[in-house]
Specification:
The chain is an alpha/beta fold and 396 residues long. The protein has twelve helices and 13 strands. Bound molecules: pyridoxal-5'-phosphate.
């Protein structure tokens, strides 16, 4: 049986089991049509008085406003860009002009390299980078351990909303409390969590955050949030005439307008198909309640089946709480790549490697080969899980 959501996601009609969603989600027709419609209407840049340019101008404003609804923040706190990694490096360069030798940055051990490398680069100017160790193999981050690491010199704490390796979901509000307690900022990587849980920047207390629409059923884009009040003081690389308090300071060059049109289509899918047609954030809240209902049985079955498989060593949280449906595991006697290749021949797409979460892979002793990763989203089915398990059972 193909996914009941294949009606909306053309790629799912092939019957292939897409279980590498952590590397990017499939996109609904809403997104594809919105891109096509934008380009058909006349591809052009923003800011000019003719009709097609005005469409592009309005589209960019709408993309900013609707992304703010998605993140639960203000439109002027939203910056649209090419990828979370590129945007995080941009912030890193700006902060390098503010941070001094002897200042400190804390990076959690669950971070994707995109939320580690830009901060490690600050070491060249004497910034001390500390690692907030997780408890393994669950990948649990304890706020008490963070409390012991931070000092009055701590300027930034980099933490993920969900680990793209083992799927663990740290308590962000507790992280913000500890960081803010010593006057540090919090940089949240919401890339992996955002197709599972609707971001809530107000509740998280984040000062900076990134997510990538391509993980949330949209095109290949990235997005940065900077808390109001911080933006004007950030010495970003920008064109001289861009005002200091404008989100454009982190949006150099011409934007991917068709991509942002597609992202608006993806948000329409969420509201219309999963959110009962409710407009605004309310529609997104409902959509993610539905996503939770759809994902929960998939998460529970996969966790249970992988946990009791005789050849599988599963890393990450052992309970459905405090995790998303991302499963990182190895199979006795086989390198992860061989497992992924075998599964690909059975019509199941999974990842093998470290997926840029090298701190976690190191801590688990998995370098250089890493592990297999199966990551599920709401459009996956119990049949996908069965096929994964049958593929594992048929391994040589
Ligand atoms: C947790 C996490 N953070 C950051 C990234 C990087 O995102 P982007 O590809 O938009 O740079 C990824 C990509 O896989 C990710 O999983």
């Amino acid at each position: 049986m193909t996914s009941p959501y294949a009606e909306h996601f053309p790629a799912l009609r092939s019957g292939f089991s897409y279980l590498d969603n952590a590397a990017g989600a499939q996109v609904p027709s809403h997104c594809i049509h919105a891109i096509s419609q934008f380009l058909t209407g006349g591809s052009c840049n923003v800011g000019q008085p003719y009709a097609a340019s005005q469409v592009a101008t309005a589209l960019k404003a709408r993309a900013r406003a609707e992304t703010a609804e998605f993140l639960h923040c203000l439109p002027e706190e939203v910056m649209l860009g090419p990828s979370a990694t590129a945007l995080t490096f941009q912030v890193g360069r700006a902060l390098s002009r503010l941070f001094k030798a002897g200042d400190e940055v804390v990076i959690s051990e669950l971070e994707h390299e995109s939320n580690a490398a830009p901060w490690r680069a600050l070491e060249a100017q004497g910034v001390k980078v500390k690692t907030w160790r997780a408890h393994w193999p669950e990948g649990r981050l304890e706020p008490a351990d963070l409390r012991a690491l931070v000092t009055p010199r701590t300027r930034l704490v980099a933490v993920t909303a969900a680990a793209n390796s083992v799927g663990a979901t740290p308590e962000l509000a507790a992280v913000a409390e500890v960081a803010h307690g010593v006057g540090a900022w919090v940089f949240v990587d919401a890339v992996h969590s955002s197709p599972h849980h609707l971001p809530d920047l107000r509740a998280w207390g984040a000062d900076f955050a990134v997510f990538s629409p391509y993980k949330v059923f949209g095109p290949h884009l990235g997005c940065l949030y900077v808390r109001r009040g911080l933006l004007a003081g950030l010495p970003a690389d920008k064109l001289w005439f861009v005002p200091d308090d404008s989100p454009q300071k982190f949006e150099p060059g011409t934007a991917n307008h068709e991509g942002w049109a597609g992202w608006l289509g993806s948000l329409a899918y969420l509201r219309e198909v999963l959110g009962g047609g409710q407009p605004g954030r309310e529609g997104l809240v409902r959509a993610f309640q539905r996503i939770e209902e759809l994902e929960r049985p998939l998460l529970e079955t996969t966790l249970e089946r992988l946990s009791r498989h005789p050849r599988v060593s599963l890393y990450g949280p052992k309970q459905p709480q405090g995790r998303v449906a991302t499963f990182c595991f190895n199979v006795t006697g086989l390198p992860p790549r061989a497992v992924a290749e075998h599964l690909a021949r059975q019509g199941v797409g999974v990842a093998a490697g470290h997926y840029y979460a090298t701190l976690a892979a190191d801590a688990l002793g998995l370098m250089p080969d890493g592990a297999v990763r199966a990551s599920l989203l709401h459009y996956n089915t119990q049949e996908d899980v069965e096929r994964l398990m049958a593929g594992l059972d048929s391994l040589p």
